[in-house]
Structures are given as C-alpha cells and as structure tokens.
Design goal:
single chain; Tetracycline Repressor, domain 2; 10 helices
Length: about 200
C-alpha cells in the first residue's frame, strides 16, 4: 500500500503541484481513508520527500537506459531532454520551482541527488562526444559541466511555468552543444533540432 500511495502522490504532485495537492485529495483519488495515508506518512512533507526520491530513482534508471542504447553524444542529450519533457509535460507549474518555494528542505536534498547524477552523466557525454569527433578536444570538461547544470537548475528554480521552463531548457541544450561542437557536431545538432521540432 505504501508504494501505491507514493506512486499516486507522485503522479498528482507532478500534474497539479506539490502545494495544491492535499492528503485529502490523494485519499479521495485512491478511494482510501486519509488515516491509511497517515499510517505510512506522518505528514505531507514526508510523502513529498519519498515521492521525489522515487522520481529521482526513475529518472536515473531512464537516463541509464538511454545511455545504453549507444546514441551519439548529441542525440543522447536530445533523447534525455525528450524524456524530461515527457515526464513533466502534464504540469502547469515547474515541480522544481514549487519544491524550492514551498518545501526548501526537500528541494535541497533533491538538488544534491540531481547534481550527483548530472556530474556523471554530463562528463560521460562530453567524453563520448570528444571521442566521436562531435565536440572539440580542447574543452575544459569540469567547467562546461558546471556551466550547463547551473544554467538548467537556474531555469527550473526561477521559472514558474513548466512550458516556459521546458522551452528554455531546450534553448540551453542548443547553447551548450554549440559551445562545444566541432563542424561535424554542428551538422548533427542541426539534424537533432530539426527532428525535435518536427515531432
């Protein structure tokens, strides 16, 4: 039952917002009593914390699966971007913006976990792109990683609208890729941009 509650709460939080969804809403949606929820979660903040941890794990698993499919480095980033867009497309308000504003302690934990994944993922991607001749060899990898995730987190922390955040993240991905790309990489980037906009 605990896993079912977390799954439903996660779905509702992403769709309607961490602030607006109440324990009553979740109980009504699941046709159970609020008392059943409180049996597993002393308060809403604990439920949000566990929901974001599950989401974090799911995102990590999907990223790992995308990386295992052996896309080239630029296409891989576009596939990951598409995955995030699909996960958060139902929400009106950016979940990260909401977490930071209403549940700062949960947000700080989520941010630490996400940065850990981002460091590893971005580093592997840049190294792969250099080997494939899509990114320049003279890149300071650590600096580019820091610049990119600072840009992405800044967008999500400060943009209320999920639609606007998604559009800005796409611009950030293009900006990040152009900054690193070789001539061959620019050709691949243009191809991915065309594919992304026509889907």
């Amino acid at each position: 039952m605990k896993e079912k509650i977390i799954s439903k709460a996660k779905e509702m939080f992403l769709k309607l917002g961490f602030k607006s969804i109440t324990m009553d809403d979740i109980a009504a949606e699941m046709c159970i009593s609020k008392k059943t929820i409180y049996k597993y979660f002393a308060n809403k903040e604990l439920l949000i914390q566990e929901s974001t941890e599950v989401l974090h794990t799911e995102v990590h698993e999907i990223i790992t699966e995308i990386i295992s499919k052996k896309y080239n480095a630029i296409e891989e980033n576009f596939q990951i971007r598409k995955m995030f867009a699909d996960i958060f497309k139902s929400g009106e308000t950016s979940p990260i913006y909401q977490l930071k504003k209403h549940y700062p302690e949960v947000y700080e934990t989520a941010l630490e976990n996400q940065i850990e994944i981002c460091d590893s993922c971005f580093k592997q991607n840049i190294e792969k792109g250099i080997v494939q001749g899509l990114y320049r060899k003279d890149i300071n990898i650590d600096v580019y990683i820091k610049l990119y995730y600072t840009l992405i987190f800044s967008i999500n922390e400060n943009t209320r609208s999920e639609r606007e955040a998604s559009a800005l993240e796409m611009e950030a991905l293009e900006y990040h890729t152009r900054a690193m790309a070789t001539a061959e990489g620019i050709i691949e980037l243009e191809k991915q941009l065309l594919n992304y906009t026509t889907k």
